[in-house]
Amino acid sequence: NGLKKYFPITGGIFGRKKGDVKAVDDVSFYVKKGETLGIVGESGCGKSTTGRLLMRLIEASDGRILFEDKEITSMSKSELRKTRRDIQMVFQDPYASLNPRHSIQQILEEPLIVHGIGNKQERKKRVQEMLEVVGLSSYHARRYPHQFSGGQRQRIGIAKALMTKPKLIIADEPVSALDVSIQAQVLNLMKDIQNEFQLTYIFIAHDLGVVRHISDRVGVMYLGRLIELADSEELYENPMHPYTKALLSAVPIPDPDIKRETILIEGELPSPANPPSGCAFHTRCSQVMDICQSIRPVERNLNGHSVACHLYE
Ligand code: SF4
Ligand code: MG
């Protein structure tokens, strides 16, 4: 609720503060148990920062994060450690998060050791179980990360996230680095695992196409702000914000009978260090009005479909 993350910009020889990059600027949303919330936006929109804030890998500048009625933002270190068993992350580049000198056994049992779960034998058994859950075999435990393909490494990243039996998984662009054919496999695997273990997902992506089939609801971010959020079907069929409309027009439609005009987003993405006044999208919006340049649109909720744009006020 009201989540903000400002990174200070310092400069000059005295390192004086010159201003803030508002990486996440007053973002609020909830995720229901068992559902998947997709969060979509271009790079630099604050979606990854939001994911890291939720886990308190970085500290919020302002706002509150609640997980099952417990406030993550005010937890002590030991409470936070306990809660982190329940919330795990899957990263875009599994290779970077897998220590190349550690065997898969060592990599997968690490979260259990950190949280003091199980003895050696139990850990070994859990590693074998989770390798099978993600479609690998127990003999893979003796191998090393470089012996696997990108898709297999992401399966290992997913197995690692599952080790502590989490309730919520925050997946930050988990398939962006993979070939399109492999993407579908990993998405299907994640969907199956969600059903099997009753997991809740926050699924971060830069492309509306990727999250379409996995998400129950989808939020769209632009320059640190959440500009639209709705049930998936509603968002894809009835996008309201001009930015969402433009993003969607770039997603190919499988049915060739449906014609859709491609809306081009003009201009470059402005720097998050110096976002436009008023509506941050006004420099690129085809429907820009006078008010958009000076007044920031507030979020309006129209039957569960929320949008921040002056066109709907
Ligand atoms: Fe475009 Fe104005 Fe809506 Fe922003 S508030 S998206 S500039 S119409
Ligand atoms: Mg990112």
UniProtKB/TrEMBL annotation:
Transmembrane segments: none annotated. One of its GO terms (biological process) is transmembrane transport. Pfam families: ABC_tran, oligo_HPY. Keywords: ATP-binding, Nucleotide-binding, Transport. The keyword Metal-binding does not apply. GO terms for molecular function: ATP binding; ATP hydrolysis activity. PROSITE patterns: ABC_TRANSPORTER_1, ABC_TRANSPORTER_2. Residues 1-248 form the ABC transporter domain. Gene3D superfamilies: P-loop containing nucleotide triphosphate hydrolases (3.40.50.300). It comes from the Bacteria. Coiled coil: none annotated. Signal peptide: none annotated. Belongs to the ABC transporter superfamily. This is Oligopeptide transport ATP-binding protein OppF. The lineage of its organism: Bacteria, Bacillati, Bacillota, Bacilli, Bacillales.
